[in-house]
Specification:
Blueprint: E1 24-25, E2 31-32, H1 38-48, H2 50-58, H3 60-70, H4 79-91, H5 93-102, E3 115-123, E4 129-132, E5 141-144, E6 152-160, E7 164-174, H6 203-213, E8 216-217, E9 228-229, E10 232-233, H7 237-243, E11 258-260, E12 267-269, H8 278-293, E13 302-303, E14 306-310, H9 324-333, E15 336-339, E16 345-350, E17 353-358, H10 370-381, E18 396-400, H11 406-410, E19 417-422, H12 425-437, E20 445-449, H13 455-458, E21 467-471, H14 480-489, E22 493-498, H15 501-522, E23 526-535, E24 545-553
Parallel strand pairs: 5-7, 8-23, 18-19, 18-21, 19-20, 21-22
Antiparallel strand pairs: 1-2, 3-4, 3-6, 4-5, 6-7, 9-14, 10-13, 11-12, 14-15, 16-17, 22-24, 23-24
Helix pairs in contact: 1-2, 2-3, 14-15
Bound molecules: S-adenosylmethionine.
Length: 558
């Protein structure tokens, strides 16, 4: 990972597709092709150079074969693959197949900086608009941020991919007035910053769009919700040498501390971020000033961390009270502060549970939605629906990919035994500290570091018919090793939480298929997919957290 982190997007990992560099200009104004265009450049050069033409003439067959070999495979479930699926849905399988057979999928019909007018057909899964290039262009899709279905737009191409191009929005010629209202925009950087895509939409419309992917429950806070932001800046030394500091001591325009400009790796200066909490916004100004003062000392670029924390009380004041009214009062008056040290300790409250974790480690970034989310997961495990009434109530919980124990600890009152597993030793330390902080007994609440699949060897004494498993893996999803053991273990209910609906769908599909195969071979019960529900952890952006519930049932009930 580079030192410069992405903009304030859900950091269960990068979400924006446009991380790849765009076609850039040299100082002389000439377009140059950067890393990801290399393959395309190869293909184009091969088809236009004399040598390639001679080779073609010699053996069309060989050349065709060669051309096909040049088209790199798309990594399944990568951001590129997600776009490709959207493009395929829009152009139709047949058109895509034809282009692939003709070897024209990398032959973009557009030049760098070419402007064109388009009508938006749909939104992609990452919130960018998808428009089909009008005739006489070949079947080709253009992805443009900040545009809505039905809108007529003018765009400028900045990067060509396979069967699609990326473009900047130049102008909305005919807006979709039913959906777009520019007065709703709560951020002066909207339209340039890579962080948010949806601020021109009402919150209901944002949820509707997410519901197109998965039925979604809204966030109580729609602005001021992010408890962590990571602005960054490049080393100012080169520019300092060139331009010096402004005589009046002000911040030079060339020094930018902020987030990425959408579709680029260029930093834009950000003085405030309305989706971040007020505590973080208050801290941002003085942090920027501090950096400015010692600009000369930054030999390399820096990724800052601003993370909200409750003030951690001193030992003497930390004794928990037995009085609920008192606790509520404490909660209301809890002081919030901003931690910038990656190794610093963060304290966070989720309902009546307190968590402590290392500032640089993973924790969900929208605290306002964590009680609804964890309550929902609890209700899925203990349903009141008639179909599951004959199954015993789960008493044991396995929290796989548990991080600092969010699900294990919030749901602990409902289980006699809870265990969690997580790759990060730091997070496991935090889970143990948080368990202690909430007076959970170490005998009944255990957390271990390791690969998620290792958990099954440690829970052989858990009654399977009374065990619930929560899975919350990173964006790339789980793996076959884990899923095989999950099926073998056969917990009564599995709740799969994910920030990537695509890998979640793949894994759920695998669970269902393998579970059916096991039932057909050995008899017994089989997992069925009971519900899939979204939670909006990321208002103003296109992202959604998805919760899928699988239950082991007799097939006649399935
Ligand atoms: C999306 S986070 C979820 C954390 C936690 N459930 C929460 O909501 O706070 C995914 C976690 O999986 C962990 N992880 C990644 N690969 C893993 C693996 N193979 N086995 C166990 N944990 C893993 C990461 O360190 C990260 O903490």
């Amino acid at each position: 990972m580079s030192e410069i982190h992405p903009p304030p997007t859900p950091d269960k990992d990068a979400v924006h597709i446009a991380k790849k560099p765009r076609l850039e200009e040299t100082e002389s104004g000439e377009a140059i092709v950067q890393a990801d265009e290399a393959v395309q450049e190869d293909a184009l050069a091969a088809s236009s150079s004399t040598a390639a033409k001679q080779a073609k003439a010699k053996s069309a067959k060989k050349s065709n074969k060669k051309k096909k070999q040049k088209v790199p495979l798309i990594e399944p479930y990568s951001n590129e693959d997600v776009i490709f699926q959207d493009v395929k849905a829009l152009l139709g399988e047949e058109a895509v197949l034809k282009a692939q057979e003709a070897g024209s999928e990398l032959k973009a019909p557009f030049e760098f900086k070419q402007e064109l007018e388009l009508v938006v057909s749909a939104l992609s899964s990452n919130g960018e608009s998808l428009s089909i290039a009008p005739a006489p262009y070949p079947p080709w899709v253009v992805l443009t941020p900040f545009a809505l279905p039905g809108e007529k737009i003018r765009v400028k191409i900045y990067r060509n991919a396979r069967l699609w191009s990326h473009a900047d929005l130049v102008e909305v010629i005919e807006p979709n007035t039913e959906l777009r209202d520019m007065d709703r925009i709560g951020c002066k950087y909207f339209g340039k910053c890579a962080g948010c895509q949806f601020q021109m939409l009402s919150y209901d419309t944002q949820l509707d769009l997410k519901r197109n992917v998965v039925s979604t429950i809204g966030s109580p806070l729609q602005y001021g919700y992010r408890t962590k932001i990571t602005p960054h800046f490049e080393s100012p030394l080169r520019d300092l040498k060139k331009h010096g500091r402004p005589a009046d001591g002000s911040k030079p325009d060339w020094f930018k501390i902020g987030f990425n400009v959408i579709g680029t790796r260029n930093t834009m200066d950000i003085e405030e971020c309305p989706i971040a909490t007020p505590t973080l916004n208050k801290a941002l100004g003085p942090i920027r000033e501090g950096i400015l003062e010692k600009m000369e000392t930054y030999k390399r670029g820096v990724s800052l961390l601003l993370r909200e924390s409750l003030e951690i009380p001193t030992e003497s004041s930390a004794t928990p009270s037995q009085d609920e009214a008192m606790d509520a009062l404490v909660e209301e008056t809890e002081k919030k502060l901003c931690v910038t040290d990656h190794r610093g300790t963060i304290r966070e409250r989720v309902g009546d549970k307190l968590f402590e974790y290392t500032a640089g480690s993973f924790f969900q970034n929208n605290n306002s939605v964590l009680v609804p989310l964890t309550d929902y997961v609890r209700d899925c495990i203990f349903p009141t629906a008639p179909a599951s009434i004959d199954t015993p109530r789960p008493t044991h919980l396995v929290d796989a990919y548990c991080g600092s124990g969010l699900f294990a600890i919030t749901l602990s009152p409902h289980f006699s035994r809870v265990t969690g597993i997580e790759l990060s030793t730091d997070s496991i330390k935090s889970a143990n500290i948080s368990a202690k902080l909430n007076n959970l007994s170490p005998e009944q609440h255990t957390f271990m570091s390791g690969d998620a699949s290792d958990i099954f060897a440690t829970v052989t004494s858990f009654p399977r018919a009374e065990t619930a498993v929560i899975i919350d893996p990173p964006r790339k999803g789980s793996d076959e090793k884990f899923i095989d053991q999950l099926i073998e273990f056969g917990a009564a209910v599995v709740v799969y939480v994910s920030c990537n609906v695509h890998t979640q769908a793949r894994d759920v599909g695998m669970i269902l298929k393998k579970s059916q195969a096991k039932r057909e071979k050995e008899g017994g019960k089989e997992y069925t997919l009971e519900t899939v529900r979204g939670f909006d952890l990321f208002p103003q952006t296109a992202h959604v957290e998805s919760v899928a519930v699988l239950r082991l049932v007799n097939v006649e009930h399935a």
